[in-house]
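User: My advisor, Dr. K., asked me to get a structural model of this assembly before our group meeting. I'm new to this, so sorry if the format is off. These are the inputs:
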Amino acid sequence: MKILCCISHVPDTTTRIQFTADGKALDRSGVTFIINPYDDFVLARAAELKEKNPTGVHVTVLCVGKNGASSTDSVDANLRKALALGLDEAVRIDAEPLDAFFVASQIAAYAQDKGFDLFLFGKESIDYNGSQVPGMVAALLGLPFISYATSIEILNGSAKLTREITGGKELIESPLPLVLSAQKGLAEWRIPNVRGIMQAKSKPLHVIAPLSVSPRVQTLRHEPPPPKGTFKKIEPERIDELVQELANKGLI
Amino acid sequence: MSAVVVWAETTEGRLKKPTLEALTAGRKWATTLGEPLWAVVIGDKLSENIPDLIAEYGAEKLIRILSPEFSTFIPNAYARALAALIREKNVSYVVIPQTYDGRALAPLASIWANAALFSGITTIPEKQAELWVARRICYSNKGLEWIGTAHLPLIITLKANSIIPEKSPYSLTIEDFSFRPPVEDLRAKPVGVEKVSTDKVPLTEAEIVVSAGRGLKGPENWTIVEELAKVLGAATACSKPVADVGWRPHHEHVGQTGIQISPNLYIAIGISGAIQHLAGVASSKNILVINSDPEAPFFKAADYGIVGDAFEVVPRLTEAIRRYKEQHSH
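Assistant: The format is fine. Below is the predicted structure of the whole assembly, which you can bring to the meeting.
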């Protein structure tokens, strides 16, 4: 079984966010980039499947991105971190991710003739939370798409999955190949061990030139969020006044 | 002549709140464009009351795409149907509610309809020179991004609670659009549903969310949270540590790796306000924090704060709201 895990390279949640002077992009200086947390669920599940069947499962990790100027902004370093979980090889498509359509087109073009059985994505990336790329890849390749998956089991070439829906979960059966976007629950996060980190250093990491694709959506500018309104401290004895204020605002 | 088309997601004979938001946005967009608003329902049958509800929120035409294969939501099949409609009717503008199903449908439909996709925007697109322009929240609520496209068709999904549903009654015509999905789009089969809650407000749609964390000391103490939620008609939620130790179910976990919400009022009880938690809730319109620790970082992100013991403050707040509601219910 061949698995393709697609990951995003995103600023650490705790990092301070600033934009370039023209507002067109993130100011990357001093920003630490991590593997998107939802993609960690996917990598952990791929590692579990690989452990169960080391010779029968082959896992490729892919990211569309360019290495930044600093060591804390290296796509390659994050791909090696993923490989350290026991996965087989990595691919970096050497391009700035211009929009979701651009990224999905790169992934679909790379994967088209490789015979992958499972395409695993996090449900969204924590930078723009668009939830677009996995579904676009499924559509470009004409494969079944299961979003917000919280579990997947493979048996005899087909998959049993659960998917989060409003107020519950849905059980799904699908033949392979399929494209899945993962919600928390797919697997427990894993931390690579020293042996995994050592082995990852010599695993293949292919850098591939991108396809020429026109993005459909462009960034015009960024701006900081509007300043927070004034903070009001309420004494516990004066809760009635708070209730009145919430009511005046039409909140209750 | 084109139209603005809204995918109306129905559930058990009613329209979900995100659908009402999508219809309201679609109505405003259509009025600006001077084009009609159409709603499309995809399913195996149509509940009798749905057309009236759709007309109430401003649609002029209801397009039914009915086929037995659409009895449950299958992203590929629904997207193929929507894309066929967009192509055949030359539709340029599409609004999809940002629900679990809507977010699965939109990217597939965008590819098959050769459309641009604005995902999770918080404003109705506006025309600026040659571009359609809208805003979305980015970097865990630490930035805003303006995006633009000249590419049509354009499909949008709106972040929940970005627009207040408004009635705008129109007289409705009904049209059938005949489409049956190819078998290749029916490969992933839904085989069952497990409901976890039946009578509660869904977290992603709730206007008020009452959430609690480790400050409550144990799962047996959640009664005060549920009572406050009940008097407010709110959904209940929790922080990650509380879900991780099993005090509360995982589907209640809000935060970066849980569910992201943006209710009108978020009440956080005994939650310190770690940045990963804030990433999931900071776009709430109003935040009330109740915490015994005056140094809790959550106060910095709050609109209202009460420093005090939750076991004392929360029942008092519940009682004050109950009293207010009784006095003003006549």
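One thing worth pointing out at the meeting: Chain A touches chain B through 78 residues (CB under 8 Å).

User: Perfect, thanks a lot.
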